[in-house]
Amino acid sequence: MNIAILGGKFDPPHIWHFLTAQQVLENVPEIDQAWLLPDYTNAFRPIVAMPSDRIEMLHFLETGRIKLSTIAIAREETTYTVNIATELKKDLNNRYYWIVGSDVTTEFSRWRDYQKLSRLMQFLVFPRKDYPIKNLPQGFQKVPGDLLLSNISSTTIRDRVKNGLSITGLVFPEVEDYIRRRNLYK
């Protein structure tokens, strides 16, 4: 099976996380499933919501071909993509790809053991609004197709919640309800 992984903080997971995974499935024919893989903690930026809250919210994004993976959270340590990729490579039954936004391509050299990582995993680059794809590192390929683009971010959603603004349409209704019930991001 060919599995594309969308890793990240998912703090909170939003509609664009789902649409990115869905569009990869629609436009990269060899991909069978997309996995949403939340970090336990992130090496570059803090995470606000607890892992258990992010897992619960991510369940609302699952479909038959979009799945949640708790591999990184189960490690209970700072998530480094190279460690996850090394672990996944041991699974000889599947081939894994890593989905990144086009904003990541210019900072990829900041990732831990990025040269080893680019040998372990093929990267699928999803265009992000305001981040045109110019030069791709070796092992990176652009997701083809006439793709829907957005600048929706978890940061924007957290800021809107904190400021008492609506997040309707930016997250699934179940995620919005969960955030409200758990009083997250206030």
Q: Can you put this structure into words, describing what you see?
A:
There is one protein chain. The protein has one domain (2-149): 3-Layer(aba) Sandwich (Rossmann fold), CATH 3.40.50. Helices cover 33% and strands 19% of the residues. The protein is built from seven helices and eight strands, in the order E-H-E-E-H-E-H-E-H-E-H-E-E-H-H. The strands form two sheets. Strands 4-2-1-6-7-8 form a six-stranded parallel β-sheet, with helices on both faces. Strands 3-5 form a two-stranded parallel sheet. Helix 5 (114-120) links the parallel strand 6 and strand 7. Helix 4 (81-89) runs parallel beside helix 5. The mean pLDDT is 94.
Distance between the termini: 41 Å
Which fold name fills CATH's third level, the topology? Answer: Rossmann fold
User: In percent, how helical is the residue content?
Assistant: 25-40%
Morphology: globular
Strand order of the largest sheet: 4-2-1-6-7-8
User: How would you sum up the major sheet?
Assistant: 6 strands, parallel
Structural class: alpha/beta
Count of helices? 7
Total domain units: 1
Average pLDDT value? Answer: 94
Q: Compute the number of strand runs.
A: 8
Whole-angstrom Rg = 16 Å
Q: How would you name the CATH homologous superfamily?
A: HUPs
Low-confidence stretches: none
Strand content: 15-25%
Order of helices and strands: EHEEHEHEHEHEEHH
- The CATH class is Alpha Beta
What CATH architecture do you see? 3-Layer(aba) Sandwich
